[in-house]
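User: I'm putting together notes for a lab meeting next week and I want to include a structural view of one of the chains we've been expressing. I don't have a solved structure, so I'd like a prediction I can at least talk through. The sequence is below, exactly as it appears in our construct file.
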Amino acid sequence: MMMFRWIVMLLLIGSALSFAMFIGTQDRRWLNRGLLVLKWTVIAGLAFFAVLLLERMAIAI
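Assistant: Thanks for the context. Below is the predicted structure for the 61-residue chain, given as structure tokens.
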């Protein structure tokens, strides 16, 4: 569980840094990278909650 939290946190930091670089340089590549990293952050977050849900279901059985 701690690994998922670290992955999501690092992805959020990477996304924020990419958006900051876009604001500083106005280079569209940084915006695209930030959006890509944000997309993978959402996917990692959904996987994290899916694991939590599956653990709850396993305990209930």
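A couple of points you could mention at the meeting. The radius of gyration is 15 Å. The chain is about 95% helix and 0% strand.

User: Perfect, that's what I needed.
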